[in-house]
């Protein structure tokens, strides 16, 4: 019997920027769970029937975390099987473009490179396609919460907290007339891909 897929939760966040053309609309974001540790990941592999014990798997995974950055620091992309490829890119110092070939003489690259990003490009072959549309098809999406970020005072200090309200609860409250409709007047449009609300725009590279 096939195992039931665990759902990927999708939360909705209201665009509160009244200067935005998408003001008052809700946009999706993943309901991210607690980060799994390397040991937890190794145990997950054991639970999925790995022939190796957790200690051996943990040792291999730890070795990967040490060797992969070393190779990327040398400009060597690393492909991890059908998962995808890690590779480095340079972030340019703002306004520090080199104006001419003459200006390259004696140039210190540290003066024009602000940082080196570790990026990840998922495999996009026909057999192991992990680009965003294909990977979405591998997920079982489930609407969960309306997510909001608010500033509150706790023990005399201003802090930013995130609140979650189940969408079913919000809909019930709206029907009962106990909440005010959203600024956009549509009570929860989910169209678009993030737009002015800060979505990822559908790209596949991961900037780490």
Summary tags:
4-stranded mixed β-sheet; 208 residues; alpha+beta; HU Protein, Chain A; extended; 4 helices
First-to-last CA distance: 37 Å
Show unreliable segments. Answer: 185-204
Main beta-sheet annotation: 4 strands, mixed
User: What fraction, in percent, of the residue positions are helical?
Assistant: 10-25%
N to C succession of SSEs: EEHHEEEHEEHE
Question: How much of the polypeptide forms β-strand, as a percent range?
Answer: 25-35%
- Domain tally: 1
Shape: extended
Question: Number of helix segments?
Answer: 4
Q: Tell me, what is the CATH class?
A: Few Secondary Structures
**Over the alpha carbons, how many angstroms does the gyration radius reach?**
23 Å
CATH fold-level assignment: HU Protein, Chain A
CATH architecture: Irregular
Number of strands: 8
User: CATH superfamily membership, which one?
Assistant: IHF-like DNA-binding proteins
Strand order within the widest sheet?
A: 2-1-6-7
User: Helix/strand/pairing class, anyone?
Assistant: alpha+beta
Mean pLDDT, to the nearest integer, reads: 85
């Amino acid at each position: 019997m096939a195992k039931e897929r665990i759902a990927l939760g999708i939360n909705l966040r209201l665009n509160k920027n009244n200067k935005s053309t998408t003001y008052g609309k809700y946009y999706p974001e993943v309901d991210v769970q607690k980060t799994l540790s390397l040991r937890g990941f190794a145990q997950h592999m054991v639970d999925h029937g790995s022939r190796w014990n957790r200690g051996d798997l943990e040792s291999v995974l730890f070795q990967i975390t040490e060797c992969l950055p070393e190779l990327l620091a040398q400009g060597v992309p690393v492909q991890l099987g059908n998962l995808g490829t890690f590779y480095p890119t340079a972030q340019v110092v703002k306004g520090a473009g080199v104006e001419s070939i003459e200006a390259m003489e004696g140039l210190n690259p540290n003066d024009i490179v602000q940082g080196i990003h570790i990026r990840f490009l998922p495999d996009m072959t026909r057999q192991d396609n992990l680009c965003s549309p294909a990977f979405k098809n591998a997920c079982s999406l489930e609407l969960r919460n309306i997510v909001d970020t608010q500033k509150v005072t706790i023990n005399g200090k201003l802090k930013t907290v995130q609140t979650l309200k189940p969408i079913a609860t919000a809909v019930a409250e709206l029907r009962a007339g106990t909440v005010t409709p959203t600024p956009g007047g549509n009570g929860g449009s989910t169209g678009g891909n993030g737009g002015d609300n800060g979505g990822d725009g559908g790209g596949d590279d991961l900037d780490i």
